[in-house]
Design goal:
With 266 residues, the protein is α/β, with parallel strands linked by helices. The protein has one domain: TIM Barrel, CATH 3.20.20. The chain has a 9-stranded parallel sheet with strand order 5-4-3-2-1-9-8-7-6. The longest helix is centred in the C-terminal third of the chain and has 17 residues. It starts with a helix and ends with a helix.
Length: 266
């Protein structure tokens, strides 16, 4: 059983929902990435989505774009992020880690080399924003060979045929993008999510996490009632941006504890 599957099984037994925080590796500094990961776990995270900074993002709003720019200026690369995961695993061998980013850095490394290195350092899943299921078969084979869960996005506009494709390929969990647009944009329509999740469950047996636009505890609590996991990214990245390196861990920890409490009350 993979770490991701084990985490969701444990939560199901406890009748709880997953809290899945996202932040960009290397922001605010490479030295703080692993301490931030440990702080997220200590504050109640069940899965960590670690963003791989990329110069030309398509799905990221301005908050995460700025985080990527800051990380790239400090020399953060896919290889250095894999080393960060390796360092994290020296103290934590249980919390699932998912790398989230775009295909170019992985293509540059090569999918086989990437998947092998992910397995070696303890990465559990990979979400490649710009790799739709139709173009993911080769990547899927490499990831599967090394025990890495391929995780896919679904959106309000996703047609049934693609939902069926994702249901066949996905492992770990499926990430439902709760609104049209980029990360951190717009206001959530909870009724639309409530209508869409049952449609997805007709095809998808994996846990479903919902993200994009979840900016406070009240929204996290409301979304948690509708799905298996709540993904919070831009709000955490904004907290990092608004903090100093001296107080960023304390500030992010306080936010994540607040989100954890709200989700557990759902």
């Amino acid at each position: 059983m993979s770490r991701i599957q084990a985490a969701f099984e444990k939560l199901k037994q406890q009748q709880r929902r997953a809290l899945i925080p996202f932040f960009t590796a290397g922001d605010p500094s490479p030295a703080l990435t692993v301490p931030l990961m440990h702080a997220l776990v200590a504050s109640g995270a069940d899965v960590i989505e670690l963003g791989v900074p990329f110069s030309d993002p398509m799905a990221d709003g301005p908050t995460i774009q700025r985080a990527s720019e800051r990380a790239l200026k400090k020399g953060v690369s896919l290889r250095s992020i894999l080393e960060m995961v390796s360092e994290f695993r020296r103290q934590d061998n249980a919390t699932p880690v998912v790398l989230m980013g775009y295909g170019n850095p992985i293509e540059a490394m090569g999918w086989e080399a990437f998947a092998s290195r992910c397995q070696a350092v303890g990465v559990d899943g990979v979400l490649t924003v710009d790799f739709p299921p139709e173009e993911s078969f080769e990547a899927f084979e490499h990831l599967q060979r090394h025990g890495i869960d391929p995780i896919f996005l679904l959106a309000p506009t996703t047609k049934e045929a693609r939902i069926e494709q994702v249901a066949k390929l996905a492992r770990g969990y499926v990430y439902y993008v709760s609104l049209k647009g980029v990360t951190g944009a717009g206001n959530l329509d909870l009724s639309a999510i409530e209508q869409k999740i049952p449609e997805l469950r007709q095809h998808i047996k994996l846990p479903i996490g919902v993200g994009f636009g979840i900016r406070d505890a009240a929204t996290a609590k409301a979304v948690a009632k509708l799905c298996d996991g709540v993904v919070v990214g831009s709000r955490i990245v904004q907290q990092i941006e608004d903090s100093t390196e001296q107080n960023v861990i304390a500030n992010v920890s306080a936010l994540v504890k607040e989100l954890r409490l709200a989700i557990d009350q759902a």
